[in-house]
What we know:
Layout: E1 4-7, E2 10-13, E3 18-24, E4 33-39, E5 46-52, E6 56-59, E7 67-72, E8 77-82, E9 91-101, E10 104-110, E11 114-119
Parallel strand pairs: 2-11
Antiparallel strand pairs: 1-3, 3-8, 4-5, 4-9, 5-6, 7-8, 9-10, 9-11
Amino acid sequence: QVQLVESGGGLVQAGGSLRLSCAASRSISMFNGMGWYRQAPGQQRELVATIRSGSITNYAASAQGRFTIYTDNADDTLYLQMNNLKPEDTAVYYCNTGRFLDGTFFPGYWGRGTQVTVSS
Length: 120
């Protein structure tokens, strides 16, 4: 069992930045992969970014060039730096520890999420 606690969400104007954090109850160096998902009202949950082996990253097209996923093994924390935020980034953001199989990320444990709201 792994507990994940997200933080760092909030209300920001378009063009602003936020950094989301996800604190894990176990050493994240033991995880095959981690990721951030988001779910907007009335929408399906979508994968935003993943990280594998601490440095191999992948992003959804909507996040490419604006978001950065990274880890701090010393603090067992996953981060998502989000810059140049847009109103369409408004969603609840979830942290996940999962597994890569044949290049595909399969989600595992979920956090409870943190709300990000971007005003125009």
